[in-house]
Structure formats: structure tokens, C-alpha cells
């Protein structure tokens, strides 16, 4: 058996088959919260809720083609 290295979840962009938890559009942002759950949002909802998500996120994974407004908030 060949060992497989898997990068940490925060470095992996959301898979294209994941859907937004609010509207079922394609997922662009995956957020892991302290309670242990994960949320997936489309670009519209990810930016709409960026301030709130930045406050509760333990880690985030952003699709490479998407620019999330919360990235700046997470850095502060």
C-alpha cells in the first residue's frame, strides 16, 4: 500500500460538489467552527456574512478563484 499525504483541511479548497448551506449554490467557502461543525457558503453568502463568520471561524478554506471579504477580517 502506498501512503497518501493529505493536506490539512484549511489548505484544501471546497470541493465543487459542495453546496451552499443557505441557497444550495456551488460552495466557495468552507468554515470550521469551534463547536466542531462545518459550514459551506456560496460567494454571495460568504461575503454577506463575512464579519460574523470571521468571528466564529476556527479555520477557513476558500476556493482558489474566489476572493472572500473575510480574509482581511481573519488577519486582524
From TrEMBL:
<dbReference type="InterPro" id="IPR055878">
    <property type="entry name" value="DUF7455"/>
</dbReference>
<feature type="domain" description="DUF7455">
    <location>
        <begin position="16"/>
        <end position="64"/>
    </location>
</feature>
<protein>
    <recommendedName>
        <fullName>DUF7455 domain-containing protein</fullName>
    </recommendedName>
</protein>
<dbReference type="Pfam" id="PF24254">
    <property type="entry name" value="DUF7455"/>
</dbReference>
Amino acid at each position: 500500500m502506498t501512503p497518501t499525504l493529505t493536506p490539512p483541511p484549511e489548505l484544501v479548497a471546497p470541493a465543487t460538489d459542495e453546496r451552499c448551506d443557505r441557497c444550495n449554490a456551488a460552495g466557495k467557502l468552507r468554515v470550521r467552527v469551534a463547536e466542531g461543525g462545518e459550514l459551506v457558503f456560496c460567494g454571495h453568502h460568504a461575503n454577506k456574512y463575512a464579519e460574523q463568520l470571521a468571528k466564529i471561524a476556527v479555520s477557513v478554506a476558500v476556493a482558489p478563484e474566489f476572493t472572500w471579504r473575510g480574509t482581511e477580517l481573519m488577519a486582524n
